[in-house]
Amino acid sequence: MSIKVLILGAGYGTRLQRDIRADPTHAYSHLLGVPKALLPVGNYDALISSWLDVLTAAGIDSRSDLYIVTNAMNYDAFITWTKRHNIPADHICSDGTTANENRLGAIADIEYAIKYFKLDSDILIIAGDLLFYRNFKLSDMLIRFSSLSDNDCLTVTYTIPDEFTKRYGIALIDESLNNLITHFLEKPDPEETASREACPCFYLLKKNAVSLISEFLKESEKKGEALEQRDAPGKFLAWAINEGKCKFYAENINGRIDVGGLNSYVEALKYFE
């Protein structure tokens, strides 16, 4: 299977940086200015370094098939990381932004990277602040992905408590249809849906479906939508699924750690001790 991996590392981690500055213990002050994707965790020098093991175990060569999009402020830090892991420096690109106020947004960064690197294949998109539990096996997911039609896509879901629905994108899944996602809600109230299947930014897109990224952005631009309406990856997923643009199937996992603020980073540190 020919597949390229794109890690999103162009965010500015404003909430985490704010939490670190407000922490009365000052225990994490040394991490001020460090991009979330490059935060050390467990035995890994960076959060995204943990994905290198996952990719290798699945038969994906990070030296040839891994790409990362970041911003101008953090570009040099990612280049330093590539040198430690023998990843080509030209597999890192900057979207040119310099602050959270002029960020492109996750979906626009995906489009930018696809065009910049001229990616013309199936693509695995991974959020740079995302961690899965150790028992996750990408190889099993790739086997299922290869069995799907040329227009179908695959994502992961996991069960969350009722009160967390307002934090995540929620997928409505039909188990009788091979876990087809029939509808997608972005951060709904618990009363809006009976589903508790959260969907993080970990998408396997077939080559034929990659062009939907640009289509989504063009439609959003025509509507005059603000950045907040097209920033989060879940906005794209909701559009693609609810508008019938393509089929997304769910692969259930045990859970994830989303490094957003300091508390979730400390959680990640404890898990990977």
Describe this structure in words.
It is a single chain. With 273 residues, this protein is an alpha/beta fold. The chain folds into two domains: 151 residues, Spore Coat Polysaccharide Biosynthesis Protein SpsA, Chain A; 117 residues, Spore Coat Polysaccharide Biosynthesis Protein SpsA, Chain A, CATH 3.90.550.10. Helices cover 31% and strands 21% of the residues. The protein is built from nine helices and twelve strands. Strands 1, 2, 3, 4, 6, 7, 8, 9, 10 and 11 form a ten-stranded mixed beta sheet that branches. A two-stranded antiparallel sheet has the order 5-12. The longest helix has 12 residues. The chain is globular, with a radius of gyration of 18 Å. InterPro entries: NTP_transferase_dom (IPR005835), Nucleotide-diphossugar_trans (IPR029044). This is 10149_t:CDS:1.
Features of this protein?
273 residues, alpha/beta, Spore Coat Polysaccharide Biosynthesis Protein SpsA, Chain A, ten-stranded mixed sheet, two-stranded antiparallel ribbon, 12 strands, 10149_t:CDS:1, NTP_transferase_dom, Nucleotide-diphossugar_trans
Topology:
Elements: E1 3-9, H1 14-22, H2 49-57, H3 62-65, E2 66-70, H4 75-84, E3 92-94, H5 106-117, E4 122-127, E5 130-132, H6 138-147, E6 153-159, E7 169-174, E8 180-186, E9 197-198, E10 202-205, H7 212-222, H8 233-242, E11 248-252, E12 256-258, H9 262-271
Parallel strand pairs: 1-2, 1-4, 2-3, 6-11
Antiparallel strand pairs: 4-10, 5-12, 6-9, 6-10, 7-8, 7-9
